[in-house]
Design brief:
This protein is α+β, with helices and mostly antiparallel strands. It has two domains: 136 residues, no CATH class; 102 residues, Sandwich (Immunoglobulin-like). It is 47% helix and 22% strand. It contains five helices and nine strands, in the order αααααβββββββββ. The strands form two sheets. It has a five-stranded antiparallel β-sheet with strand order 2-9-8-5-6, with no helix packed on it. A four-stranded antiparallel β-sheet has the order 1-3-4-7, with helices on one face. The longest helix is centred in the N-terminal third of the chain and has 41 residues. The protein is globular. Bound molecules: zinc ion. The site of zinc ion has 6 residues, from helix 1 and helix 3.
């Protein structure tokens, strides 16, 4: 395998690494590669700066929405007859900023891909990222029950796939993500380390009868960091149910 062919695999992993979307074994392989490869370190730095800006935009949007909810409640109790004004356009604008940023990130990957020739992992990653952006914008929101105040997240599905976007995780920690069906059986599991920003952003195929999603911080087993098991253990840091 020549260097270009072998390296394309790592280029494909960079975006997912920054968004916390690598599973445990991919994550280990990619981190080991980063130690030797200045190209990938530079690329990860650029992608991380973009992801950081996007996270800021999303946090602002969250704050605007929370303020609107409080304002609406206040007005309802003050004066039930008062006509509600239209929501400030800021929310809509910032949502497009997030999507625009994601597309920029995809564009950056495509640009890189064009430079390096044939499509492989990158094309799949780009398709998944675009698809994740679409599900994130148009999908049905799951009801989230935030069990750890510092962790915030959104889960949305469109009947075929679901996207998980979670912020505020501990970058040093390994986590298990579990999807339960209505009978409480684990229909899907995914072990991951979040991005260095403490994020997970990833698209998954929606299991049949998916009902609830849990992210748990595994029980300490003496290993550092603790390894997630086949069932949730330790603290549940995020939970959402399908409506
Ligand atoms: Zn590299």
């Amino acid at each position: 395998m020549d260097r270009a062919d072998g390296h394309r695999y790592f280029e494909g992993l960079a975006v997912a690494h920054v968004l916390g979307g690598l599973d445990d074994s991919e994550g280990r392989v990619f981190r080991a590669h980063l130690l030797d490869c200045a190209d990938c370190r530079a690329r990860v730095g650029e992608l991380r700066a973009i992801a950081h800006d996007l996270a800021d935009v999303e946090r602002d949007e969250h704050r605007v929405r929370a303020a609107q909810v409080i304002e609406t409640k206040r007005r309802e109790s003050d004066d039930a007859d008062d006509d509600l004004e239209e929501a400030p356009p800021a929310t809509r604008v910032s949502r497009f900023t997030v999507l625009g940023g994601l597309l920029f990130l995809v564009g950056l990957s495509l640009w890189n891909f064009t430079l390096h020739g044939e499509m492989t992992q990158l094309e799949t990653d780009n398709r998944n990222l675009v698809r994740a952006g679409v599900v994130r914008e148009t999908g049905t929101s799951w009801r989230s029950a935030i069990t750890d105040a510092s962790v915030q997240g959104v889960v949305k599905d469109d009947g075929t796939d679901f996207v998980v976007s979670v912020d505020g995780l501990d970058p040093e920690q390994r986590y298990g993500l579990y999807v339960k069906d209505e009978s409480g059986t684990t229909a899907y599991r995914f072990y991951f380390g979040p991005s260095e920003e403490g994020r997970l952003y990833r698209l998954f195929a929606l299991p049949d009868d998916a009902d609830r999603l849990l992210i748990s911080d595994p029980e300490d087993t003496g290993d550092s960091p603790a390894v997630p098991g086949s069932e949730p253990s330790g603290d549940t840091v995020f939970e959402a149910s399908r409506p």
